[in-house]
Amino acid sequence: MKTRICGTDFNEMLLEANYPKWFKDETEALLERTFSANIFLGKGAYKEVFFEGVHIGYGNLELSKHTIFNFESEFETVEMHFALNGTTVTTSEYFDDTIRFSPGSHNVFYTNGFKGVSEWSSRFPLRIFEINMTPAFFKKYLPEGNLLFEDFKKAILDRKSAVLSSKNYPVTMEMYAIINEIIQCQRQGIFKRMFLESKVISLLLLQLEQIIMLNTTNTSNGIKKGDIEKMYAVKELLDMNFKKTDTLIDLARKVGTNEYTLKKGFKELFGTSVFQYWKGVRLETAKHMLTEEGLSVQEVSRKIGYKNPQHFTAAFKKQFGVVPSELRS
User: Fold this and answer.
1) Dihedral (C-alpha) 290, 293, 296, 300: value to the nearest 10 degrees?
2) What is the pTM (predicted TM-score) of this model?
3) Residues 115, 260: one domain?
4) Do the Cβ atoms of 29 and 140 come closer than 8 Å?
């Protein structure tokens, strides 16, 4: 089984990767490898972990220019896709609609072999996290009785590529926390595999629960459709302006709602308060600056708006379990 990434004329081969059959290596509990992002006319890396039934991939890329390329894969998979930062657009005859991912969004899709064209914006660093599962692994955890899930299950049974939902969903802070645990896992061998498999299931649980919740928001206690759009608008403001210190009232006015609706709706939709989400965005940005840009703790603290580096260090350790200086060693 292979994945190929080519220039838009298919003459320039950027990457060809072979995958273990059914994502399984016969001699190890798991298999790990890393690809340099230099092939994408930028810098960064794409890291992978395989074990039976599961492939985990994490890319952290900075492109030097807007990039368009052809993408082709040969294997059958269900993918949990998380766009942590940056913007991507994918078109394919396998899907009815264009697949667009903006920062902080996720979805699930099924492909049985795939060909398409992807566009990656160079405006912001691109951070993607994806988990590929064999259909057999995924179907064990797909709930019964939900129309959206039943349609997706039918597409898998018919071996017809499909997206679980026509809209993407917000990556919550709880999801970010699990993703960070997976990326930072230092265990080895069978213990790493056991840890990662448990986190994959936990992350899938959060995805499916959220999708059910956000597709049943027409009840009297749910969030109105118009308010959901306003909550997304606030999230986008926080994602793009992590240093800005708008009050809740300011944010509410910018999107055309009130403070009460903003506090209640944001918490229900994203699983965290506006302040905690904003704090998480700042610290995620800080982590990127430390690990990918090589800035000092003092520089990062200042750039993300902390006047006191000690306060920054305390907040960073609470969020990620390590002090920022450990990521610089």
Assistant:
1) -70
2) 0.70
3) no
4) no
